[in-house]
Specification:
2 strands, 71% helix, mainly alpha, single chain
């Protein structure tokens, strides 16, 4: 955003905004703000200075970071309110990242955990049944073998 538009947004004059930036120049590195060139200015406003209202120097453009930083160096009521909102947002984001999930996500996680436990129990039971079945089949085969052996002995007698 350009300095003129931000000054209007924050309720200060463009001159006061730029003075605050100069007094706090360490807070505004190149990735926070930069001054646009004459060529960029002409591209933006097509008709030179008529829509801008005239200017002695090229305006400053502020990145998202610069817009946020402005709220901490300007002393208007609006800037103070915006700065407080930014700080509250940072805290809320940090809390949402560090706190355990709530609501639907937490419920889904709980249900998934319960489902996993249930499936583990089913697989354990199935393995137990398979083992029992194998033992029973082995016993049946042994009994059949014994019966066949007894039958063979009786024929030979």
């Amino acid at each position: 955003m350009l300095d003129r538009d931000l000054a209007e947004l924050y309720g200060v004059t463009t001159g006061n905004l730029n003075k605050a930036v100069k007094r706090n120049s360490d807070r505004f590195p190149d990735d926070f703000m930069f001054q646009i060139s004459k060529e960029e200015f002409d591209l933006i406003f097509q008709n030179g200075t008529s829509s801008w209202g005239g200017t002695r120097k090229m305006p400053y453009a502020f990145t998202e970071l610069g817009v946020a930083m402005l709220s901490s160096v300007l002393n208007s009521k609006t800037a103070i309110q915006i700065n407080m909102a930014i700080m509250r947002t940072f805290v809320a984001v940090r809390q949402s990242i560090t706190l355990k999930p709530t609501g639907t996500l937490a419920e889904l996680q709980s249900e998934m955990s319960e489902l996993k436990i249930y499936l583990d129990e089913i697989f354990t039971d199935q393995n137990d049944i398979n083992e029992d079945t194998r033992m029973q089949l082995e016993l049946i085969n042994q009994s059949l073998a014994e019966l066949q052996a007894n039958k063979s002995e009786k024929k030979n007698d």
